[in-house]
Design brief:
Blueprint lengths: L5 H31 L4 H8 L4 H4 L4 H6 L9 H19 L2 H6 L3 H29 L6 H25 L2 H9 L14 H21 L19 H12 L2 H12 L5 H13 L4 H7 L3 H7 L10 H24 L1 H4 L3 H33 L5 H27 L7 H29 L19 H6 L7
GO cellular component, one term: membrane
InterPro entries: AcetylCoA_trans_1-like (IPR024371), AmpG_permease/AT-1 (IPR004752), MFS_trans_sf (IPR036259)
Subcellular location: Membrane
């Protein structure tokens, strides 16, 4: 049975991106629990290695695009088994996650989460491609919209929701007591129950997709632009793209720019936990950010100079990072006035997330402008992978470096050091980023057809942008 109505396509992609977002949110919440269990910065650095699958998925993305079973379709050949493996991996993780965290068995935990995120990154490749097929006859922008809403809400469930409602103190005071329910030693659920629930959800959704949502093999290539490249040609095209001077400069920007605000972005929540804030409180103060993540991407979606906006937003992001760093440093003194402290902290978080997501939209918009339409999916995966590498490497760098610094002041020292790096980076690349924005799109292409630039369908390329870790 084929379900091709637009509302059905929107529903299935929203659910798939939501499941993906839950896993990503969970992976970013685990460091909070490790910190509460007494993990050192070095151990946090070990765990950060679990996030690398999204930085290296370009290695196997072409394989998924080229090899498939005709009867199942290009995307579902991989999507169904990957989703099933992901569900099984989450269920397996649920039996060990709490003991690994409490016992600080970080290496084993990192290996299991790495496996889960490997399947998640592979699922992301499949869902991105399948969503394009589902919306090819209507409007491919629905793919981008479904990803933004579904993944954002999923991240919310895997982070803020989990941190808040797993807390026994919060649920006893604000849920059980008003409902006259006896207090308990746990929240609404344990971490193991939360992970196991979503593992089962993956398996259920996989069965539904397998029997209800079927990809029509005859239509799967309708949205391709030009002849499909062979596997060897795709890898060769990646190497040729990387040899371009403009791409090398863009790669430098994507790899180095995250270091300017890495300490604030990756260590702030851990620093707040270190200063005595509970997981439930941290979850509550980050809840308003979900609205920012959904609404902000609409602001720059139509800009014609996205890299210029990315450049202009870099100084404000450095400034707000310093302000947050200073504010967190004085947390022990300011928290004596909770209403004022939390109001200001939430405001700072909202401003920071607004700038982060404006930069994200600007960066992805620039990817869409410069991507060669005949290998748009590969091109977009390449540049998004470079961005992910910058994020994950900077994450590992700041967490490992914190272990070498005085424990009490490691966060503040790293915020200062990262800001200096950011200022130096901005002075080095300000003109470079403006110049890259001025380069005609066809100069970024692998080749040209008949000596003329190939026209770019920006909407389709934006929809194929893939997932960047934020």
């Amino acid at each position: 049975m084929f379900v091709t109505a637009p509302i059905a396509s929107i529903t299935v992609t929203l659910i798939l991106y939501l499941l993906q977002g839950v896993v990503l949110g969970l992976s970013t919440s685990i460091p909070v629990y490790l910190k509460r269990a007494g993990a050192s910065w070095k151990q946090q650095g070990h765990y950060s290695l679990a996030h690398y699958p999204f930085s290296i998925k370009l290695i196997w993305a072409p394989v998924i695009d080229v090899f498939y079973i005709q009867r199942l379709g290009r995307r579902q050949t991989w999507l169904l088994p990957v989703q099933a493996c992901l569900g099984v991996a989450l269920i397996a993780l649920s039996f060990y996650i709490e003991s690994f965290i409490d016992g600080l068995q970080v290496i084993l935990l990192t290996i299991l989460v790495f496996i889960v995120l490997f399947f998640t990154a592979t699922q992301d490749i499949c869902v991105d491609g399948w969503a394009l097929n589902l919306f090819a006859s209507t409007n491919v922008v629905w793919q981008s919209t479904s990803q933004t809403i579904g993944q954002t809400f999923g991240r919310f469930l895997g982070s803020s929701f989990l941190l808040t409602f797993r807390s026994a103190n919060f649920t006893n005071e604000y849920i059980r007591q008003p409902l006259s329910i006896p207090p308990a030693d746990t929240g609404l659920f344990t971490l193991a129950q939360f992970v196991r629930f979503w593992g089962i959800a993956f398996l259920v959704v996989t069965c539904i997709v397998a029997f209800v949502y079927r990809q029509r093999p005859s239509n799967e290539n309708n949205n391709d632009i030009g002849p499909r490249l062979k596997l060897f040609e795709i890898y060769l095209s990646i190497l040729k793209i990387l040899r371009k001077k403009c791409m090398l400069e863009l790669a430098f920007i994507l790899l180095v720019s995250p270091f300017g605000y890495a300490a604030t972005y990756f260590l702030t929540n851990l620093a707040l936990i270190n200063n005595g804030m509970s997981e439930a409180t941290l979850g509550l103060i980050t809840m308003p950010i979900i609205f920012v993540k959904i609404l902000v991407p609409l602001i720059l979606s139509q800009t014609h100079r996205p890299l210029i906006w990315f450049t202009r937003l870099y100084p404000p992001r450095l400034i707000i990072s310093v302000v947050i760093g200073v504010y967190v440093f004085f947390t022990p003194q300011l928290i004596k006035y909770p209403r004022v402290f939390y109001s200001v902290l939430i405001t700072l978080f909202i401003i920071n997330e607004t700038i982060i997501y404006l930069q994200l939209v600007a960066r992805v918009g620039f990817y869409a402008q410069v991507s060669d339409p005949r290998i748009g999916g590969t091109y977009m995966t390449l540049v998004s992978t470079l961005g992910n590498i910058g994020q994950t490497v900077s994450n590992s760098a700041v967490t490992y470096a914190a272990d070498w610094l005085p424990k009490q002041h490691s966060y503040s020292i790293e915020v200062a050091a990262c800001t200096i790096i950011g200022i130096i980076f901005l002075l080095m690349t300000w003109r470079m980023m403006h110049r890259l924005q001025q380069i005609p799109s066809h100069k970024w292409y692998l080749t040209q057809e008949n000596g003329r630039p190939v026209e770019t369908n920006t909407q389709e390329l934006l929809a194929t942008r893939g997932t960047e870790k934020i």
